[in-house]
Amino acid sequence: MSENSTEANAKADLENLNLTISKETTSHQNISTDFANEETTVSKQGAAKEEQTIDNVFQVTIKLPHQPYEIQIMVSTQEQVQDLRQSIIDSPGSFQYSCFHLEHKGERINDYVELSEVKGLAAGSGVKLVEDPYTEKEARMHLIRIRDIIGAAGNRVDTLHGISAGLSLHDTVSPWKDPAAPSPPTDIPAAASPSGAPHALADYALDTPPSMRTIIPTDQEQPPKTIKSLGVSAWNPPPPFLRQQGHLLYLQLTTNEGEQFQITSHISGFFVNRSSNSKFDPFPRPPPKNAAAHSLFSLISVLSQSFSKSFETLLDANNKRDPLANFQLTNAIPSSPWLVAPTVTSLSSHQPDLTRTQETFLLSGVENTETLRDWNEEIQSTRELPRETVQDRVFRERLISKVFAEFNEAAARGAMMVARGEVAPLNPTESKDAQIFVYNNVFYSFGADGVGTFTSEGGDAAARVAVGKDVGGVKAINQLDIAGLATPGTIIVDYLGKRLVAQSIVPGIFKQREPEEHQVDYGGVEGRDVVAENEAFVPTFSQASRALKVKKHPVWDKEGKRHVLEGSVETKGLLGTDGRKYILDLYRLTPLDVTWLEEHCKDGNELTIESQSHNYPHRMTTLRPELVEAYWRLKMGEYVQEEVKRRKASAKADGPAATMNATGESQVNGVEKINGEHQTEKDKPSEPKDKTEDQSPEEDRVDISAFSLSLNPDVFSGQVPQTNEEKEEWANDEREVRAVCAHLHKKIIPEMIKDLREGEVGFPMDGQSLSRLMHRRGVNLRYLGKLATLTENEDARLRALKALTVQEMVARAFKHVAHRYLKHLPMAFTANCLCHLLNCLLGAGLNESPEAQIDEDLRDLYMDADYSFAKLTPHSLKGEIEAQVRTRYQYVLDDAWTHEIRHIQLLRSIALKLGLQLICRDYQFTPETQTNTEKSKLEANGFANGNVKYSGNSHACGNATGKKKKKNGGPTSPVTNGSDTPSQQSTFSPEDIANMVPIIKDACPKSVLAEEALEAGKISMMQNQKEIGQELLLESLTLHEQIYGILHPEVARVYHQLAMLYYQLDEKNAAIELAHKAVIISERTLGIDSNETILSYLNLALFEHGNRNTTVALACVRHALELWKIIYGSKHPDSITTLNNAAVMLQQLQFYPESRQWFETSLAISEEVSGKQSVNTATLLFQLAQALVLDQDHKGAVHRIREAYSIFLSKLGPDDPNTKESEKWLEQLTQNAVSMAKHAKDVQARRLRRVFFNPRATTMGARPQPQVGQPTSEVASGRDISSRSSNSFDSRSIDELVKIIENGDNISKTSTGKKRTTRSNPKRRGGAGAIGAQA
């Protein structure tokens, strides 16, 4: 009962918090409704949680026909029988079974029902596995599965996923261990690693160039071969007369012993036949050489004596890696790294495998029809599944995620074939840009203005943007999930310089209609000239419009006739022949950015020759939906405040007026805080809820049903109102849109810059994170130039932001230039073109006049191709990039921008935008690079200056020896494909471009149910209702895994968030396990060097250190820092926190000199980024002083603590706790240092009359461990070792005492004094505890 009452209270509190949202505003889907939905889920489960745990999850016994004859499997009544089948197939004791059915009490179990529907199935029940006869399809699937299991599948070549797709480096950086298993702590000085380094950071230097080999996997042992080959025989397929006898396939097996067997796949199983390579006799061998089994795995075990032992060795090798690193991705396209190992392009890396050529047949059958699917029907019927119960919603969203993922993959593969010219167009007589294609039941077209639709908007440039915005609009409609409103499956694919749109085929879209009929049923038919109306579309379109803040408005056709539409005139409705209502062309869901258009996109008659080069290339400058949402919240808040003031005025004679005002403000802030998670309003304080507890519900409620704000998306787009009333309404709509644009310029952009300058939000690491930050705030990327202009000042953080912004503009400009040259170029010249472009941009410092490498023989084969890229020079490319930046971002690059670019970071950004996969080697961008490369080789062999050396590989400590060598290379440089790098005249060669993968943007919606549970759990945790909060968070985790599958970016993000929450709840083992999973999934789905992966590694380091696995933590820190170098460079503003964490970890391991160095590095960056007189710098000075004491530098400690005290005093005042704390520390350190100075001679004579303290047991009050997660009890052992000096402060002033210290000679550095360590440290705003900076 107590738990139910807790749930009721939580629900009541949240309802009170969200009373400002009335029931009428269903279009605004906020977290209050999500929480209410999830509360329904919890109320179903929470009333009898214990009973459900007992009844729903239980163990069943699976009885097998062969050894081990029985296995135990945990099941839930909510699972499907298919889930139980999958568990059996994945179990180590029964993985050889694939064709079977299950029986319970002699009755066959239907595979497509829930286990709860199986009569009598309970704990301890026995389920019998019965082997079924094979069909040809099941035999093919069985062969593929067995090949995968026994490691005989070989290396597959996948054009979609790219080289090393889904790569994870986790196991080489931080070998995973089961957190539940006991392990000795490693927070004591570790023994030397095999390389001789005492810890992971021992040979690391922050100021060295990044080693790109950080993101290349280390050479691993090849797994043992269990057989030599297994595939389809040359005798396949069976002739008709033998197919009637049950023959399905003919296979050929070669064992490790060298024996070759011809095998018949029969409906009853597999047996060895009497065929040979030259003789066909597919019937069973006679005894004693006969062998047969239902499973191919069992048959191989009989035929090969070494198979079982080698298979066990293979399993052991696989078990050394985390299982998540081996699982195949199903619901997400794996990330392809932009750098790949040089060995992948060596001829020896491609092994012969005849069955690799047969996999298409094995997967699709002889007619290749099994993989053809009606994508549109699958997508629409899945979305129409019932959604009444929670289980219905889980099943529906799980299937939606699966179908969208499969469609995205199939559509992307087809798009690549279209881009390569391998699919015949349906209209070959049209121009190339106007051609359309159908492949695998997917419709393809180019993202170009082939038929002149966008002539007035900007032609090809407008069409390219429009299709991108269309995908975003489809995703928004999919997320709304409006019943009765269908969208086609849609993705866009950028590949080989071409943008392709792939859509599922809407039934009836190609239908030839009567002359008087329109091609569409609602919206603009032919641009804006003809407009169709259909009342059947109004209800569903109105739901979408309300949710997206789109105003119902009139439009006028070319004859001036008025039509009232629910959406933009560009948005179309189509009644498919399947009876569904489809919404199409969703690129104008928000209004145009009129401020930008009026400033930078002049009409043709206004253009001069000079301004034309600055004119924006198109008019598709719509506002972002996040901006519209932020403006809606702003206006809604103003409305609520006005309503509160009105009530206050009407009730000013009553007593509670003041309370009502406070209540109203609290409601506004509460709504902003909940619904604006990523907006600037999130930091506004909300009033305590207990102020309103005694109010009546009527007094609390502010009904906003009368509030309405929607925008007309068709203003400023050529519509001509006819009457005065229409003109007045249109003018009001225009004013509202102008107000949104003004809100963007006057508030959103300045506040974003302010937050970045003051460190209120995490500083972006690369162009991707900068883009996400801007989009989250509602700022389009066309404002990158404005961002760069506004950050031109002396502030170090803003200088870093400007450098990142300029780099992103240059990378995007290069992308547009490259697309223009690639668009009409045959694929055989793609690498040559990109190589020359990269040499002109990044390699001009090494070779000022690079020449394009073109095979003249191949050139003669493509006489009509465009080879204009060969005429490019570094100077002309520079001009083209400057022109692109000037027109697209309205920003003029400095003349010296080519000398200020960061080569590695810009190369990475370009590769990610174009889908390039480059060979990993030390590229020489300038002549100095070549010298530095040679120097780094000496350093790598142990000749670096100073205490910290540079190791090129962060996978293992000190793995530097010989790191610059390749198998085929000399001792001075790596060699790629036989080319000698030192002698080459250019930075890049065509062989450096190993592959090109497509860039995909999809419209797959997120799971509403999983997000509801996650947000509800967060709210419960914030309300200090931990029990219900943890239940909801666990439910959210389960839902994410069930709906998306484990290997998915959304699952990685929820793992990351839950790891943080569990760590704060002191559930360390659970937090660490989730953090390890977050790292692996982030690497495999988001990229091994993505900014989210770096943050996952940094948080994993914090958790491991808090769990006393500090050596593992340092390895994670090192890897993250090396990745940070690659994607940003050194001295990232947020790296201060990471460096502090590393210093604290080194203190824990008692490496005090190294810890001091890392604190000093952190301080140097803070002084540069935040200023020498900032509070952040003062905090770091405080910590450095403690580190200096531990390193026996007492004079330096006094100086640092005095500097910190001075800053705290001037910035925070004398009454601030930080000031008082630092003052006491200054007195303490000064007194101890003076005592040492007075007795220096006694110290030298071993007459020690001072207070000792043990540096192993104390950190002079720093107590860094709690700041990275450890409880304070673990650092209390060093407190108050002696109080003898507690009342012995010198009466002289601090200045006098410091002079004595500065003039004192022969002060021993082997002793120190201590007064007290019971006070806590000042707040670490930039210190080791700032976990939020990493989140």
From TrEMBL:
Residue ranges of TPR repeats: 1052-1085
Pfam families given in the database record: CLU (PF13236), CLU_N (PF15044), eIF3_p135 (PF12807), TPR_10 (PF13374), TPR_12 (PF13424)
SUPFAM superfamilies according to UniProt: Hypothetical protein c14orf129, hspc210, TPR-like
Chief location category: cytoplasm
Gene Ontology CC entries for this record: cytoplasm
Compartment(s) of residence: Cytoplasm
Biased composition (Basic residues): 1312-1326
Location of region: Disordered: 175-195, 648-700, 955-989, 1259-1335
Assembly: May associate with the eukaryotic translation initiation factor 3 (eIF-3) complex.
Function comment: mRNA-binding protein involved in proper cytoplasmic distribution of mitochondria.
Family in the record: Belongs to the CLU family.
Name recorded for this polypeptide: Clustered mitochondria protein homolog
